[in-house]
Amino acid sequence: MSKTAKDLMDAFAGESQANRRYLAYSQRAEDEFQHGVAKLFRKYKGVF
Hints:
Layout lengths: L2 H29 L3 H10 L4
Helix pairs in contact: 1-2
Protein backbone atom coordinates (compact mmCIF):
# COMPACT_ATOMS: atom_id res chain seq x y z
CA MET A 1 0.00 0.00 0.00
CA SER A 2 1.33 3.42 -0.89
CA LYS A 3 1.99 6.07 1.73
CA THR A 4 -0.73 8.25 0.23
CA ALA A 5 -3.32 5.48 0.48
CA LYS A 6 -2.34 4.78 4.10
CA ASP A 7 -2.50 8.48 4.96
CA LEU A 8 -5.96 8.72 3.39
CA MET A 9 -7.18 5.68 5.32
CA ASP A 10 -5.81 7.10 8.57
CA ALA A 11 -7.44 10.48 7.92
CA PHE A 12 -10.78 8.86 7.13
CA ALA A 13 -10.63 6.79 10.32
CA GLY A 14 -9.84 9.89 12.38
CA GLU A 15 -12.70 11.86 10.84
CA SER A 16 -15.12 8.99 11.40
CA GLN A 17 -14.15 8.80 15.06
CA ALA A 18 -14.53 12.56 15.45
CA ASN A 19 -17.97 12.43 13.86
CA ARG A 20 -19.14 9.73 16.28
CA ARG A 21 -17.62 11.62 19.22
CA TYR A 22 -19.50 14.82 18.32
CA LEU A 23 -22.74 12.87 17.98
CA ALA A 24 -22.17 11.36 21.44
CA TYR A 25 -21.44 14.82 22.90
CA SER A 26 -24.60 16.13 21.26
CA GLN A 27 -26.71 13.37 22.79
CA ARG A 28 -25.19 13.96 26.22
CA ALA A 29 -25.96 17.66 25.96
CA GLU A 30 -29.57 16.86 24.98
CA ASP A 31 -29.84 14.53 27.98
CA GLU A 32 -28.70 17.41 30.20
CA PHE A 33 -31.19 19.84 28.57
CA GLN A 34 -28.41 21.86 26.98
CA HIS A 35 -30.20 22.14 23.63
CA GLY A 36 -28.07 25.01 22.32
CA VAL A 37 -24.85 23.10 23.02
CA ALA A 38 -26.27 19.97 21.41
CA LYS A 39 -27.22 21.97 18.32
CA LEU A 40 -23.66 23.29 18.03
CA PHE A 41 -22.18 19.80 18.23
CA ARG A 42 -24.57 18.57 15.55
CA LYS A 43 -23.83 21.57 13.35
CA TYR A 44 -20.05 21.27 13.55
CA LYS A 45 -19.65 17.49 13.52
CA GLY A 46 -18.90 17.46 9.80
CA VAL A 47 -16.87 20.67 9.52
CA PHE A 48 -13.44 19.53 10.64
